[in-house]
Amino acid sequence: MWLLGDGEYAAAEWYWMPDEKIPERTKQDGRPYALWARQGWIHAQPGPVVDVRAVRDEILALRGIFDIQEIAFDQWGARAIAQDLSDAGMTMVEFQQDARSFSEPTKELLNLILQRRIVHDASPVSRFCADCLEVRADTNDRIRPIKPDRQKAAKRIDGMVARIMALDRAMRHSQQREPEIFALA
Q1: d(Cα 172, Cα 176) in Å, to the nearest integer?
Q2: How many folded domains does the chain comprise?
Q3: How far apart are the first and last CA of the chain?
Q4: Which runs of E-coded beta strand occur in the chain?
Q5: Is 159 within 8 Å of 13 (Cβ atoms)?
Q6: 90 touches 71 (CB < 8 A)
Q7: What is the residue range of 139's domain?
Q8: Each residue of 153-180: pLDDT tens digit?
Q9: What pLDDT, in 10s, does the model give residues 111-165?
Q10: CATH at residue 40
Q11: Rounded CA gap, 166 and 135, in Å?
Q12: pTM of the predicted model over 0.85
């Protein structure tokens, strides 16, 4: 996520999925994951799980393309890769998964979308995540994304959660020239 100027942001997401899970998730979610992998929207990795070392290596390679200022991460699923990236010299920032942390960047993302001030790569995976995104307000009018109940609906929001986390960091660095912020969700 980076600020383009005049309050406009740009976003791009990368998605990884174990190739052995693609048929199961395709059936479960009703989405063409194999097609999206062939088209390059999903990085399919061999085996039953995502190889976090390969993800780490891809992120480190992105340093040659982007001036990555920092990477926001969810401690629950990304502690090990966050440590590896930190050891490689990346600035890692833990993003608390609560309404207080999510509210302001979620509201800003919704405003950016409504005002058409966010540029993105039109990934079908990101569109799927955006279509699945729901938010809930607490008694203090703070909003946050709600994780879908996969028993009731085939929805995934990981891409939008990462976008919100990256937007939070980009908003905090908006005084800098074109900060590029990544997030791991």
Answers
A1: 9
A2: 1
A3: 14
A4: 2-5, 8-11, 15-18, 42-45, 68-73, 92-94, 118-120, 135-137, 143-145, 180-184
A5: yes
A6: yes
A7: 2-184
A8: 789 999 999 999 999 998 887 665 555 6
A9: 999 999 999 888 999 999 999 999 999 999 999 999 888 777 789 999 999 999 9
A10: 3.30.420
A11: 17
A12: yes
